[in-house]
């Protein structure tokens, strides 16, 4: 430190007064012993984004073509990797293969349509030939089979339906309504439903509308009355046996 607090020339060098004195300032007002000098700010590095995911094949090729066009002659990127020539070759190859794939798909659809037409014509001719064989054989199974065709099985005679099982009665949604349900019978075309007031006699049963499904609802009954029900299935061969009776007090 130079005595006197003024700048001095020592051995031909300018010595600044109070250079090492804490909390003293230059003429500019900046402290000699500035504790927190300005910090440099790091520049954020930008990253590339291709946006190729989710694009169609055509869109991918178009986007890559746009990139190649933008980079051609671009002084910012003098030596791209891969080279733009190699990148362009890949674009051309992808476009060629895509075109071939599209053409193959179109040809496949046309071939399928042609095949379906041929199969339909063959089936029609086979049916016509079967009719000829059937008429010519005049019902002779041996002759029909000698033509490489099979003989239809004789349809069995229809039988009356089985007995209805598991008839149940529940209260309906409104007063005077009963809901009936039972197990369905294979081959049944409809069901015959009968109700009887209490007590049940041979002549107390009365018919109800015939449902085609294995359930029905009956309305307009007297609330508080006990009712009995029975059901049987019906098909072209006749009527099945009556179910076991079920009973319920009308709500």
What does this structure look like?
It is a single chain. Helix content is 30%, strand content 18%. The protein has 251 residues and is an alpha+beta fold. It starts with 7 loop residues before the first strand and ends with a strand. It has three helices and ten strands; from the N terminus they run E-E-H-H-H-E-E-E-E-E-E-E-E. The protein has helices at 57-71, 84-137, 141-146, and strands at 8-10, 13-15, 168-171, 178-181, 190-197, 206-208, 215-218, 226-235, 238-239, 246-249.
Low-confidence stretches: none
Q: What is the assembly state of the chains in this entry?
A: single chain
Order of helices and strands: EEHHHEEEEEEEE
Please tell me the overall pLDDT.
87
Key descriptive features of the protein:
three-stranded antiparallel sheet, alpha+beta, five-stranded antiparallel sheet, 251 residues
């Amino acid at each position: 430190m130079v005595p006197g607090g003024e700048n001095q020339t020592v051995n031909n060098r300018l010595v600044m007064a109070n250079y090492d004195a804490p909390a003293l300032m230059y003429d500019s007002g900046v402290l000699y012993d500035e504790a927190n000098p300005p910090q440099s700010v790091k520049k954020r590095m930008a990253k590339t984004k291709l946006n190729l995911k989710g694009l169609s094949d055509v869109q991918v090729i178009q986007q890559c073509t746009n990139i190649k066009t933008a980079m051609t002659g671009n002084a910012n990127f003098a030596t791209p990797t891969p080279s733009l020539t190699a990148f362009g070759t890949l674009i051309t190859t992808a476009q060629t293969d895509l075109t071939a794939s599209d053409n193959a798909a179109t040809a496949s659809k046309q071939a399928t349509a042609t095949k379906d037409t041929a199969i339909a014509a063959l089936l029609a001719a086979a049916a016509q030939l079967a009719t000829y064989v059937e008429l010519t054989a005049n019902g002779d199974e041996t002759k029909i089979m000698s033509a490489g065709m099979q003989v239809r099985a004789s349809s069995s005679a229809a039988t009356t339906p089985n007995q209805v099982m598991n008839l149940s009665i529940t209260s309906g949604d409104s007063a005077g309504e009963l809901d009936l349900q039972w197990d369905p019978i294979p081959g049944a075309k409809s069901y015959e439903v009968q109700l009887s007031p209490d007590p049940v006699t041979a002549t107390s049963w009365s018919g109800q509308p015939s449902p085609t499904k294995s359930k029905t609802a009956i309305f307009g009954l007297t609330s508080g009355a006990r009712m009995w029900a029975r059901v049987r299935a019906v098909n072209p061969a006749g009527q099945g046996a009556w179910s076991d009776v079920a009973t319920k007090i009308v709500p």
